């Protein structure tokens, strides 16, 4: 399939939205870095057009039928080994670690806490467009065609812990499209639209048990994508911290729960569930059970309570727990029996360790 370079450039340049110089934008430093990378590529390509060079670009994939197309703006980083989990973490400003390999931080600045690690790669956003850094090391556009990218639109993407499904939202002309994609087949298994204007309060908070949890200013609703039905779930002050294995971890007023989901009030919005929904991970190496009567699990490394000292955590895509301790050591821990293996030692020059897709 052949796509004219002029069409590709128009799509990428028209999508770009210059963020306003306000405090909220200043806080989104990682997102701005990602946009700068894209702008540089667009300006370079525009120079080629100005020189009057007519080219046709052949891209792998199926193009504008909604399937993935490999994006020529991103150079391949080479194959990634995701069989032991994504192991996606960063020594900010120094290195990024992914799939058993280390990269100069400047090479993968588009991976930040808006991204989500999956067993098939890392899903991230480029100016409002969902992208996939896949196991081959190439970047794939998950959605083609023109999209809007206002500065306040950060809907996030979420992965299903039990299936190769990812949910995201995109925006075009004030209409948001929520999509569920099967990363194994490349097929969309559900899609719906919302008329929400700038959509700067639209967030995808989770996907589990056939539902996507969608929050806006009016509260949280669940969208069942098999039959395209919606159900009210929680008022505006409730936040879904995580949802996995049929368990909904929340803070704030108690939601209205569908009968097949189990509600667990969590300790904070940045708490995480293990992939099976059995334990809560929250700023310590003591994992609290979600079912009454079960015993906590204590990992072999890291503080046992929040008061014992700092550490940083993430549930990896293979179900293990990644732990970065205060001395910069990164461990991969098996939940049962809690044993841990040292993976790396970070320099600490860039500040606190960062796990890709974990906003802690």
Work out the strand percent.
35-45%
Low-confidence stretches: 1-66
Mean pLDDT: 84
Could you give the order of strands across the largest sheet? 3-10-9-8-7
Largest sheet: 5 strands, antiparallel
Estimated radius of gyration:
20 Å
What characteristic shape results from the CA principal axes?
globular
| N- and C-termini, Cα separation | 42 Å
The count of β-strands is 30
Count up the helices.
3
Characterize the structure shown.
- The chain has 360 residues and is mainly β.
- Helices cover 11% and strands 38% of the residues.
- The protein has three helices and 30 strands.
- The protein has a five-stranded antiparallel sheet, covered by helices on one side. The chain has a four-stranded antiparallel sheet with strand order 6-5-4-30, with no helix packed on it. The chain has a four-stranded antiparallel sheet with strand order 11-12-13-14, with no helix packed on it.
- Helix 1 (5-15) packs antiparallel against helix 3 (29-50).
- It starts with a strand and ends in a 5-residue tail after the last strand.
SSE layout:
Blueprint: E1 2-4, H1 5-15, H2 23-27, H3 29-50, E2 56-58, E3 69-70, E4 89-91, E5 95-98, E6 101-104, E7 116-118, E8 121-126, E9 129-134, E10 139-141, E11 157-159, E12 165-172, E13 175-182, E14 188-195, E15 203-208, E16 211-216, E17 219-224, E18 229-234, E19 239-244, E20 247-251, E21 262-265, E22 272-273, E23 279-281, E24 286-289, E25 297-298, E26 311-315, E27 321-325, E28 329-333, E29 340-345, E30 354-355
Parallel strand pairs: 20-21
Antiparallel strand pairs: 1-2, 3-10, 4-5, 4-30, 5-6, 7-8, 8-9, 9-10, 11-12, 12-13, 13-14, 15-16, 16-17, 17-18, 19-20, 22-23, 23-24, 24-25, 26-27, 27-28, 28-29
Helix pairs in contact: 1-3
């Amino acid at each position: 399939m052949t796509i004219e370079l002029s069409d590709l450039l128009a799509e990428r340049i028209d999508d770009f939205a210059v963020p306003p110089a306000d405090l909220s934008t200043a806080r989104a430093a990682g997102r701005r870095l990602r946009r700068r990378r894209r702008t540089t590529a667009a300006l370079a390509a525009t120079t080629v057009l100005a020189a009057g060079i007519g080219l046709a670009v052949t891209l792998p994939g199926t193009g504008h039928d909604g399937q993935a197309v490999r994006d020529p703006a991103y150079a391949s980083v080479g194959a990634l080994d995701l069989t032991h989990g994504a192991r996606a973490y960063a020594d900010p400003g120094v290195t990024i670690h992914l799939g058993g390999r280390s990269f100069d931080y400047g090479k993968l600045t588009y991976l930040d806490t808006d991204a989500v690690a999956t067993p098939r790669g890392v899903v991230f956003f480029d100016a409002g467009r969902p992208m996939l850094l896949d196991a081959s090391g190439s970047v794939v556009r998950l959605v083609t065609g023109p999209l809007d990218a206002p500065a306040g639109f950060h809907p996030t993407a979420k992965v299903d812990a039990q299936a190769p499904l990812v949910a995201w939202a995109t925006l075009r002309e004030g209409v948001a499209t929520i999509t569920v994609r099967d990363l194994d087949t490349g097929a969309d298994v559900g899609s719906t639209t919302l008329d929400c204007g700038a959509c700067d309060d639209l967030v995808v908070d989770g996907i589990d048990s056939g539902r996507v949890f969608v929050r806006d200013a009016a509260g949280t609703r669940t969208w069942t994508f098999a039959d395209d039905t919606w159900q009210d779930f929680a008022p505006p002050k409730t936040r879904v911290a995580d949802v996995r294995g049929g368990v909904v971890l929340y803070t704030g007023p108690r939601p209205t729960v569908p009968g097949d989901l189990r509600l667990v009030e969590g300790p904070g919005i940045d708490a995480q569930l293990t992939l099976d929904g059995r334990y809560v991970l929250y700023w310590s190496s003591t994992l609290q059970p979600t079912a009454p009567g079960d015993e906590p699990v204590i990992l072999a490394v890291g503080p046992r309570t929040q008061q014992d000292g700092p550490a940083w955590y993430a549930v990896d895509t293979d179900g293990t727990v990644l732990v970065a301790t205060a001395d910069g050591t990164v461990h991969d821990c098996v939940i049962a029996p809690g044993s841990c293996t040292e993976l790396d030692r970070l320099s600490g020059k860039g500040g606190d360790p960062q796990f890709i897709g974990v906003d802690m």
